[in-house]
């Protein structure tokens, strides 16, 4: 310890060991335990036990993560309602523009598709921005927690979950656009482009 940790004066909270090629974790653990018999305050654990200890150390974060997940879902619901409200307002204020688009040949289905695509693009753009910031902050927090608890940073990026989140954001955008797109498609052409509209 004095040789490899000179600044720690022979003290370290955690020292991971890697077995040489051909030596299994059990053989390494047995060999180290034989050497460390003289130091009863030192605990030698195998990888499985170490993972269990880490899981129990980090287990207290389960409630916090559940709360953060609930807050994230609440934020997503509010964002979906915000997109729907914005699109409904855009349809109301853009009645004349939609009427002109219909007058120059755009079909009701194309108008509805335009509204839906606007919603999906808005939702997915927001999700990409949120994922970028979330990955950065999450990696920093995970690094700080795992270094403090385990002595080393263990960060895993759940790529499949992130893709699911993007798909859910696009789906939320489609749902938010359902009513505004239907209203825009059903605008009466003559009323939409009239002087009093």
Average pLDDT works out at 79
In one word, what is the shape?
rod-shaped
Radius of gyration: 29 Å
Number of helices: 7
Distance between the termini: 83 Å
The count of DSSP E runs of length 2 or more, i.e. the number of strands, is 0
Question: What kind of sheet is the major sheet?
Answer: none
Segments where pLDDT lies below 50 for 5+ residues?
none
Give the H and E element order.
HHHHHHH
Structural class: mainly alpha
- Relative strand content: under 5%
Give the proportion of residues in helices: over 70%
Can you characterise this structure?
It is a single chain. By secondary structure, this protein is mostly helical. Helix content is 71%, strand content 0%. It has helices at residues 25-35, 47-58, 61-93, 95-103, 108-150, 159-185, 189-192. Helix 3 (61-93) packs parallel to helix 6. The longest helix is centred in the middle third of the chain and has 43 residues, at 108-150. It starts with 24 loop residues before the first helix and ends in a 5-residue tail after the last helix.
């Amino acid at each position: 310890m004095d040789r490899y940790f000179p600044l720690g004066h022979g003290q370290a909270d955690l020292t991971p060991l890697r077995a040489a090629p051909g030596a299994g974790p059990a053989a390494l653990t047995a060999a180290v335990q034989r050497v460390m018999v003289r130091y009863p305050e030192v605990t030698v654990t195998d990888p499985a036990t170490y993972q269990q200890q880490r899981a129990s150390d980090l287990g207290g974060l389960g409630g916090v993560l559940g709360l953060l997940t609930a807050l994230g879902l609440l934020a997503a619901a509010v964002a979906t309602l915000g997109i729907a409200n914005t699109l409904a307002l855009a349809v109301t204020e853009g009645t004349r523009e939609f009427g002109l688009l219909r007058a120059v040949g755009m079909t009701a289905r194309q108008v509805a598709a335009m509204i839906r695509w606007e919603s999906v693009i808005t939702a997915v753009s927001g999700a990409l921005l949120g994922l970028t910031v979330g990955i950065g902050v999450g990696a920093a927090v995970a690094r700080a927690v795992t270094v403090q608890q385990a002595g080393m940073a263990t960060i895993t990026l759940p790529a499949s979950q992130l893709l699911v989140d993007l798909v859910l954001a696009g789906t939320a955008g489609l749902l938010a656009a359902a009513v505004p797109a239907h209203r825009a498609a059903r605008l009466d052409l003559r009323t939409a482009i009239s002087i009093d509209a």
